[in-house]
Amino acid sequence: MASSDAPSGAGALTARASVDISITVPRVMQMRLIAHPAVLDVTAEDVAAGKVTVSGPSVDLHVNDRSGYVVRAEIVNAAFAALRIAGLPAPIVTNGGVAIANMPSMVGRAKPQPYPVSYELQLSSDAVPGRYSWPVALSLQQL
Question: Residue 72 falls within a domain, yes or no?
């Protein structure tokens, strides 16, 4: 349309448009093990007591799932029969094999500092003193 053909006058021009906005927040499930030993030395005194306690490690967690999350702990060495982990938002206990603990949502809260944890590892009845690879595997799962 030429400039002379453009509508002119007192009538109002109307324009309509719509904009759709969508925000997708990617799911974050991160766990970092801090100061966890690679090996565990079991002494004759530990065998006599039937357990080993490990203090000093920390677990750094960041999960943005509104429904919470699960921490899964598994004993991965036959020299150990049971496990208790204290210091996380919920305790983890297993009498062999795998333990699963539901943890509360972190959404709407400041990211927590790493959780100082302690491990109480019950020795198997046939355990002997020696050096063992770290006997606990931890992982995160969705609810």
Answer: yes
Per-residue pLDDT tens digits for 56-92: 999 999 999 999 999 999 999 999 999 999 999 999 9
Domain that holds residue 91: 29-142
Per-residue DSSP letters for the chain? --GGGS--SSPPP-----------PPP-EEEEEES--SEEEEPHHHHHHTEEEEEEEEEEEEE--TT-EEEEEEE--TTEEEEEEESSSS-EEESSSEEEEEE---TTSPPPPPEEEEEEEEEPTT--SEEEE--EEEEEEE-
Scan for tokens 């920390």, then name that residue: 58
Contact 76, 136 (CB under 8 A): yes
* Tokens 């109480």 found at: 120
For the whole model, what pTM was predicted?
Answer: 0.81
Number of domains observed in the structure of the chain: 1
